[in-house]
Amino acid sequence: MQTTGIVRRRAAERRRDTLDRLAAERDVWVSTGHPDRGPHQVPLWFLWDGHAVWMCTSATSVTVRNLREEPRVRLALPDTFDVVLLQGEAECYPAQEVPGDAAEAFNAKFGWDPRTEEGPFVYVRVVPKTVLAWRGEPELRGRVIMRDGTWQE
């Protein structure tokens, strides 16, 4: 692994960079698991509201079926050099029961309102309990920037 030029960031810098990416990026990899069927991973659009990640998918998707059995989830931003992983428990909201501000923000970001679709959709909310962030091997130490829902300093 090439590490030339990587400057190790402090926790506050990693937190700021992570929050910037959560606010700006569009896609997140969602990893769920089912006790009988095993792991499942898909990319979904997401919205960061400052405290939680919001996603939306079909109510009949494998992701939603898995989350109803096992709500623990891992999310990953799609960059293998600037890694951001979030872990938490998912809450599922049928599209007609989602808080209005979350649905409106999702619609504003993506120009899509699942509440108006014919098929049933579910909004998934994940409040991170753990966040890891690192750029290359020099940042592996100290990569946990949130533990038990608290940002590390």
Would you summarize the structure shown here?
With 153 residues, the protein is an alpha+beta fold. It has three helices and eight strands.
Q: Notable features of this structure?
A:
F420H2_bilvrd_red/Heme_oxyg; Pyridox_Oxase_N; Pnp Oxidase, Chain A; 153 residues; Split_barrel_FMN-bd; alpha+beta; six-stranded antiparallel β-barrel
Describe this structure in words.
The protein has 153 residues and is an alpha+beta fold. The chain has one domain: Electron Transport, Fmn-binding Protein, Chain A (Pnp Oxidase, Chain A, Roll). Helix content is 22%, strand content 42%. It contains three helices and eight strands. A six-stranded antiparallel beta barrel has the order 1-2-3-6-5-4. A hairpin with a 2-residue loop joins strand 7 and strand 8. The chain is globular, with a radius of gyration of 16 Å. The model has no long low-confidence stretch (mean pLDDT 94). Keywords: Oxidoreductase. This is Pyridoxamine 5'-phosphate oxidase family protein.
Mean pLDDT: 94
Strand order of the largest sheet: 1-2-3-6-5-4
Domains, number = 1
Seen as an oligomer or otherwise, the chain set is single chain
- Low-pLDDT sequence parts: none
Question: Main sheet?
Answer: 6 strands, antiparallel, barrel
Q: Say how many strands there are.
A: 8
Organism: Streptomyces asiaticus subsp. ignotus
InterPro entries: F420H2_bilvrd_red/Heme_oxyg, Pyridox_Oxase_N, Split_barrel_FMN-bd
Domain Pyridoxamine 5'-phosphate oxidase N-terminal: 22-134
Protein name: Pyridoxamine 5'-phosphate oxidase family protein
